[in-house]
Design a protein that fits this description.
Largest sheet: none
Structural class: mainly alpha
Shape: elongated
Length: about 1550
Amino acid sequence: MGVLRALRGFFTGVGARSGPARGENGGSVVGAVPAAITTFAAVVISLLDQLEDAQGGRAEAYRQLESVLWGDESDLQSSVAGRAIALAAQDLRVAQDTTAAVRMAASDVLVALARWHLHDVVSVLQGHLQALEEMSVELVLHTLHNLAIRYALQCVPFAGKTLAALRGVLSTAGSSRMLCAVCGVVEQWCSGISAYLRQREKCDFPHLGAAQLCAPVYSLGKQAMLRAMAVMMGVLLHAEEHHQHAWEQLLWLLHQYREVQDPSGVTRSLSYFLWAVMDVQAQVPRAKILAVIAAVHEQLCDEMEPPSPGHRAELCHCMVLQARICPEETIVFLYYKLRTGNKVDRVAAVEMLQALVRCDAPDVREKLPLFTKLVQSVCHDPAAQVRKAVLRFLGELLHSSAPGCSAWDVVGHLFGEFSRASGRLATGKLSVVEVWEERTVQRLCAHVLGSLDVSAGAVAKLLWPRLLQYVVPAEYTGMLVPLCRCLRALAERAERTEGEEEKAAPEALKPAEPAPLPAPQALLARLLVVAAVAPHTGGGHGAAALQLLQVLCGTIHRAVGASWATEIPLLLQHLAGTTAGFLDRAEWDSLLLKFLRASLEVIASEAWTVELSRELSRQLGGSPRLSWEKRFLYKALGTALAACGCLRHVREQTLQHLEATDFLELWEAQGIVSVVSRCAESHFQLALSSVQQFTGTLKHRKQSHALRNRAARATLMVIYGRMALRAPREQLLTHVERDIVGNVLQLYREGCQDAQLKLSLVQSVTEISLAIQAADAGPRFELCCKRELLQMLLEVMQEEPQESPVQPRALMAVEQLSKLKPRLSREEKCSLLAQCCRGVVCLRHPEQMEARGEAAAAAPVAPGVQAPSLRALGQLMRTLLREEPAPICFEDVVQVLRHWLASAEECERERALQVCVQLLGAHEEQREHGRGRACEQFGSLAGLLGPLTCDASAASRWRAATCLGHLLQIGAETTDVAPCTNEIGYLRERLNAVAPDSLLATSTNIAKLVCKHVPQGQAADFMDTVMESLQCTRPVRAWAAGRWALTFLGDCGEQIFQEEVPELVTILCTCLQSTQQSTRRCFVLRAMFILARCHQEPVIDSLLQRCLPMDSNTVEVWRSLGRSALGYPILERLTEKLRAAGDSSQGSECCARELGSSQAALEPHTIIRALCEMVSVLQSEGLVQHLLPDLLPSLLGQVSETLREEMEPSLREPESSDTSGRLFVEVLELVLSKCLEERWLRLLREQGAWASLAEPQAHSAGVCLLASVLLRAELVPPRLLQNLSTWLDSCSANLRLTATAFFAELMKDRLVEERKLLKPLLEAFAARARDPVSAVQQMAMRGLGNAASGAPVKLQRHGAAVVAVLRGGLEDGASVEVAAESLLALAKVLGPLVARAIGSAFEEVTRSSRAFWGAEEEALRCSAFTLYGALAASASASGRRSFFSREVEASFPSLVLHLGDPAPAVRDACKMALHRCAPFLASERVRRRVAASTGLSAAELQDELCRHLARDCPALLESLCHMAQSCCTGSCQAPQEAAVRILGLLMNAAPAERPQRQDPASRWGGGL
């Protein structure tokens, strides 16, 4: 009835209202609540505490808790509710101390708690539906049933998960009671779903769709129906009258395979029904049982939806039940399917038979022979699936130890199937799926063989020879592991049962004829090959082969038992300690060959060894080409021949294999090398003679075999080298030069020197060199052909293309050959190393070849070829380091490598860095033994490697940092500074960055670590290499070079030796000259600044010593220094040097001693140019002005010194001006442009001051003009005057002139009086007045005259002395310029001087001035008239009026006469003097006339006076006529011209009314 209700609930549902809990008798449960507890929560907590403490009756406590929960409308806190749910859920489990009443009460409490916490309760119950006992599940189902009754609509959201959990319970239900319980729960939950679907609009939770709710109901309903139907059918079978109904329902059940989505439920129901049939032993109709068999078979054959492994096992179980119920029908059906069915049918049939073999029922096991025959009918089926099914059947058959099973036939079938699969795989024509199928067949064969039971004694005797014959054939290698296991098991069983009688084998198991046993040599050879070729494949072939060898020791040879018991475990231990990826195959082969050699020595049987060699030859002929098996067989054959004592056999075998070898096949050529070389270990001379005999036959071979002969020559060369390597040491040295090296060279010369022959030469030379070294030849042995071999190897390296593998091997040959005697000289080693580097480092990168269009001409260089070459080159360098003294050889190697490190090609730099890493590492190791001297290449290498830390290649950057780390370690050995290798390693990892800024920052940090380790004295080397990198085309690397240079100079500039500074300056200037990019030039200029900051004096000297004319780069250096903070100190130092250069040219010894003779001798022109460039960019004008007191004298001195030594007027020549003087003047102009305002500069230009300074005849005028401007601009500080004052007594006339002219102009200014300079200057001028140079005397007179303007008052004290000096300038012998300047100076000083200051000198001065009126020189006449006018002005003030009146009366005619002087200046001066003398004339009329003629010119005044004298002053006229007459007869041209002119005027002015008197003109004319 429960089942029917469940089925009805799937389609309709009714709601239910909740009510109070019911007791076991149906009444309401009302518990008593303690009076002390008044609140709802407190009551619940108290009851929970009681339940946890197990105090009192737990059932009663639950009843009270249920009553409280139903009796209060308040909600419980989540924590309290969770605690109550956990307790109740725990009591649902079946336990020993839990009664049924307690569990039922706990279930009712959960129902009451669901009133507020339905979600928590349902979740707990869903979890309890799994992994519980049947009784506990029933309680959970009861609780879910009650929940669905009381909270029908509220349970709908949990329906999906709950019904899914019920499906799991239903699938495991084992009783009808459980099925009824599940159906009751399903009925109530389905009723709730039905009610929800009718009134879901009234529900307050989110709406759920009908499809969403019906899906789990449908799935669970199908399953419930199937289970219910199977149970019902099982019940019906107990009554015979209901059997027909049961068979009808069986057909319905089978029909469900086509209806349901998951057929596993149908199979479980079917299995349940078949169990029931077998249990009641009901007679099933044949049609029905066939239908069941067909249905089960159809499910197994379903390819569209293959059954799961669990479902497949259930189907096979159904088949077993059917076979037990109806065995005949089942066997007939399976036989039919095996004979007529398709591939899938046959597989399913074999699988069913396999299930029958597993069955332990007696009625089934007695039919096993029949099942085996059925399977044998499809043993040769071509389908892989059928073959696998048969193999699985055989495995099950062997595992079950079924009687009547022929182990012999099974073994044959297993190995046959394995061989069949191997043959199909060997064709290479299978698809991927087919390959997988065949490999699966092979694995199944091995698995089945491994499950073979060898415990039966009769079977063991048959299996031993049968299995042993499968060991040797190579086609069964894949079966070796299980085969060895079986053989070992058989051998162990034989040892255990030795001496016991065993039952005879059944007749069916006895073979028709005995199986042939393999030869012991064949077993040994095969198992060794397996152990060598595949030690880790196939589940451990190597270990299996060795273990079988140990088992077969008695079979192979009884003498090896003891030795193998020790040696084979060692081999197994070695094999167990490695894996397939880490096993050294060469080492493993060596161990096995040593084992073979030791075994042959133990056997010590010549015949046995001969037979072994023949067996190895046979297996060698049958082994596949290009296999590791063939390679090991060659080695084993050589080992066997070496152990063989029959020399005739050895010789025959050697020649036979030499003749049979196909030298064109690489593996065969390598194999014959192994055979002969290993044979030479014991039979060296025999092997050598055999090879020589075969070598001699090559000349007589046919030309058609040219390729084979060429390959044979190459192989023979390798054989000679390998024989030398394995030859006994005592026999090698006597044969190596003539018989080995000689034959190698002969073969090389006679052969076609292709890549193969060259490679053989290289390999042979390498091995011969190693053999000689290992022979410990001693000092007497020398290889005479060593240099010839080296030259040959170098030619090979140069001739071979880039992709050839010859180069790395040739380098290794050179390395080994260089160790032999005679030793190479240092020059030879350097040449050798240079050629090797050129051949390796110059290898072009594939990308570069494609870029240059060389891809078609040559194949790209493989990366695998480059790396060995670089490693070999590094190893060669290591060898050279060990042979020669480390510093010497290291320097040679670095010099060779340095070129490639600075290469413009990225790939060449990268390779050179790889070699450099090895070189520095080797050098570091060599220096670790003691602290040596400083590494002389440290600076150059550091400078070269540093910028490479910013190379374009990340690998190059990493290697450059690694090299620097080695350098630091090397440098730390000679210094006390820690190497900082950890910091270098950390920074090296950061060089993987891509951003240029990050790379530069990291490189700079590395530079800070490296630069402080550069040894003193290597700064130039470091900077030289860094500056070379600055010219790199890649900007980042060039910037890195600049930063390295700046870091070194900034951190270590103070420690640089002074002697290195000139070279550093030269390096920087050279780099600047070759660098055009502005950014990089800034690095160089900045470096020069830092160097100058640390070593200012040497840097300045070095820059000044550069040749003139100064190039633009040197100009830029000076300008950059001028702009920097060092501008003023350097300018100050240049000023001192310029002064020292000037002093040196004057012969000043004191300054030269002060600054050093070398500095004093610096070229002034270079200093001037440097000054010019620095001043032109100097930012602050105040700095130049501050230096002006020292700079101006130096520049003026150089300007003066460039002029002629003597500036006498008689020696002046227009072409005597010097262009160098103009240079100094330009610099002086530039300097003053930084100090003077524009108006003063314009004044100097307008007045031609600069041109005057550069001209010898105008130099003094230019100096005076310059001094005048400086005075007006207030730029004449005391220090300037002090510096110039020293020139007044200089031995240089030019300097004395310049200083005298400057101070002469200075006398005009009040500065003289303010600074109290009058007296010393007057004294100086007085001294210069006696100077041998007239120009100096002239400037001295001018200075004395200018004193009247600068210090007129104080001049009174020195008036007499001044006048006396000036009068000295009027003496005979004085030059015209001096006399003229003296006259003018007297004119200047007469004004300020009082009468007593002049004294009696007034009269003498007056007379002296008149004496020059008739002088030939215009300057003298002009100066004399000027002085006379000054005398006239001071005559009244000096109390000399009467004297001067007389003088004026006497000189009046001369004054009138010179008014017509041909020189305008003289006429003007005479006119001025006449005006000033007018007050002293006796004639009133003449005085008035002169005074009234101020507006007339001198000529007009002369005409007016002549007319006046002719008319009113005949006496004066008479005097004038006499004066003119005397002048006409004089020798001076100017007075004659004046006299002629005035006589003409007098003739015109003669009065007509006095004819009686003789005309004065006629009288004078007669005189003319």
